Amino acid sequence: MTKSKRFSVTIRDVAREAGVSVATVSRFINHNAPVSDDVADRLQRVMQILHYIPQATARNLATHKTHTIGLLLVDISGDFFAPLLNGIETVTSEAGYDLLISCTRQRKYPPPLGEQNTDGVLVFADSLDEKGLIEFSTSKFPIVLIHRTPPDPLRIPCVTVENKAASKKIVEHLIVEHGRRRILFLRGPVGQEDSYWRELGYRQAMAMHGVPFDPLLIAPGEFDRNVAGASIHRLIESGIEFDGIFTGDDEAAVGALESLAAAGINVPEDVSVVGFDDQRMSPYLTPPLTTVRAPTDEVGREAAQQLLQLIQGIPPTTSITLLTTEIVIRNSCGCK
Known about the structure:
alpha/beta; 336 residues; six-stranded parallel β-sheet; Rossmann fold; 3 domains; four-stranded parallel β-sheet; 434 Repressor (Amino-terminal Domain)
């Protein structure tokens, strides 16, 4: 067979060379019914020899469509990401798209996901730097940000949650309902927008109720239970007094509760603890965690839907989608 004819190879040619039926080849290509390992190996070998390209793959090459959506993440550990991924995958699978995830703590440029392997990309928080965002935006490649607003003057749609008002409300709850005045804030990663707005809500609540700001009551939490636990241990060892903790997220609350228990400090009798996100484990902590419920699953679904619309050429109706949050009262703050 000459090179000029290789791309005219049909599914019947593959079936004939492999000694199987056309239906068997179709099942193997479309993965809609199992074939034996021996047959699968034989078909794969014949397709390579004949340079056979399935029609769907050929259409993708011709139209430059991959029917794949990318998701850029820096980290995927912790319970936070399960509902986010579930929301994204629910939308993408219903639309017939695959989801390709790249997770790396070292931000790479060019990013591992882009027009070479996806039709559009979801970018979580700070998993892509400003240079990468500018490149995507300039090339008009479909992109939607999650838990991050675009830098000026880029007009990239983003989906996030209301952080400041809920943070202010939950800290006010500690002050008004439980008389707490020495309230720690375990901040998230520096430069992370969720952490910034949550700290601003914390500061506003303290100022509104005449509680002096004490920089010693701001400590690293990093949205990480180990970092948060170490911060609480260090503060206890240093003798800094506190009667409340706003952990910034529920993952950090786990570490805070562990360190308090190890030091013999009772929650909520001695120290009230509250968090943010309402992760799946939060009702089952000891004591159950008072926190802010964020619609993380809905964030994933909304972001994926907006990205699919961009891929279809439909412009966004809004630049920022801000989903509402609510306070969930349990026992860790002191409420019964």
